[in-house]
Amino acid sequence: MGVDYHQLAEGRAFMLGGVHVPHTKGAVGHSDADVLLHAICDALLGAACLGDIGVHFPDTDAQYKNIDSKKLLQQTVALIKQEGYNVVNIDSTLCLQAPKIKPYITQMQRIIASIIGITEKDISIKATTTERMGFVGREEGVVAYATVLLQSA
Ligand SMILES: [Zn+2]
What we know:
This protein has helices at residues 35-47, 53-56, 69-82, 105-116, 134-137; strands at 2-10, 15-16, 19-20, 25-27, 85-95, 123-128, 141-152. By secondary structure, the protein is an alpha+beta fold.
């Protein structure tokens, strides 16, 4: 399982699941701050007992500055395969107050499926608000949770 948090700020592009989601705010981070792809990377690394995203792609390393997180997912999948695993399926939940992300889910599934090499049907992406409670409800931040199943190749 993986979880990731990012602050939201005005003037940042909002990348979610590899898709640019038009919004007044975007996630802040060293990379493109794609909270969903980061949670999926962490879940994949965790399931293979390979540590976490910070170990493999440190935010102190200049080569990851503003990097497209699709590249981080690609490299993570390569690490998983090196360890002798295949990805079976993924379930995930995005927690954010706004905007509505339902119109973008199919596109996110398509992008993630093509990187991992599994079908879109094996990538579940759900979204919830926090009913205006807490930092997510105040639109100060965004959270993503992901769970993955790996299988020995
Ligand atoms: Zn992150």
